[in-house]
Write a structure and sequence with these properties.
single chain; about 190 residues; mainly alpha; minor pseudopilin epsh fold; 3-stranded antiparallel beta sheet; about 45% helix; globular; binds manganese (II) ion
């Protein structure tokens, strides 16, 4: 597996996510997960597998590192520079309205899921087979593909994602992330 390229500059997400946080989170944490996965793959039987298939089928250290690579790939590619009052449009906006009543209500539910996730993990918005949206919390390296969901949007609530900028204020960090969501990318993940 290769380290994904960021589709923006290191300072493009500031002040929501600083260049310093991004340089550590992407350049150190994600790089380490990629390196660990690549070190574990030889002889595992997953050498030629797609990342999603490794996450679904493997166990132990391979699964944890593959999960963190997949999670961060989805996380880092869903951002763009801050836009005040940023909100979804088009098909994804309509799906959110149908499922949650309003974008504001969805946003609150998603943030609450992130704030209430104990320890390290990820909050996800995913598409179910029946076309409905669902918010899930996954501990550690979990990804919704492990329960046959299609991941659309995610917030990383590991402390390494926000501690340099927000210290212990996870709720403030999650509330700010909406400004940098690239909803066109999220919509494209509907397939
Ligand atoms: Mn992370």
């Amino acid at each position: 597996m290769e380290l994904i390229r960021l589709p923006y500059a290191l300072d493009a997400l500031s002040p929501v996510i600083s260049a310093e946080t991004l340089s550590f989170h992407y350049g150190k944490h994600l790089q380490a997960y990629v390196n660990n996965l690549n070190a574990a793959l030889p002889g595992s039987g997953f050498e030629d597998s797609r990342l999603e298939d490794i996450v679904i089928r493997s166990e132990g250290g391979i699964r944890n590192n593959a999960g963190q690579v997949l999670n961060h790939n989805l996380y880092f590619t869903q951002f763009r520079s801050p836009v005040p009052d940023n909100a979804p449009e088009g098909g994804i906006a309509e799906l959110i309205r149908q499922e949650f009543g309003s974008f504001e209500y969805f946003r609150k539910e998603f943030e609450t899921a992130g704030v209430s996730l104990f320890g390290s993990g990820w909050v996800w918005l995913s598409l179910q087979d029946d076309g409905h949206l669902i918010i899930t919390k996954e501990p550690n390296a979990g990804n919704p593909v492990q329960r046959s969901l299609r991941p659309l949007l995610t917030f990383d609530v590991w402390e390494h994602a926000y501690y340099l900028d927000y210290q212990n204020r996870r709720p403030a960090h999650l509330a700010a992330l909406w400004e940098i969501i690239d909803w066109e990318v999220v919509e494209s993940r509907l397939g």
